[in-house]
Amino acid sequence: MKLSGKCKILKIYISEDSKYKGHNLYHALVFKLREIGMAGVTVTRGIEGFGQEKRLHTTRILDLSLSLPIIVEVIDIPERIEKAIPVIEEMVNEGLIMVTDVHVVKYGKEQLNGEDKAEMTS
Description:
globular; Alpha-Beta Plaits; alpha+beta; single chain; 27% helix
């Protein structure tokens, strides 16, 4: 899949303990986004943060939280991001969903032709 130039980034901020049909929400989101053909998805677990209720969530041992922040990020062409938004809205009951413009400079592994590969190995 080619991805470059004007794209969008979809970020979904949720809690680690958020569920969707009995499963971890972030895991369900990854599978759903893969199913609908997104270029890629990254899930990041936060080490500390707070949300709308201002309750602190942290990995520090004295304040151990089982509800750490999770960020699900998707970068793709605007049409695929727009297609994904209604699906995400249906799945996410509590959290933050945002979309911003992004300029993709490079995506994936650079493909070398046969001559370039031969020069590199000799």
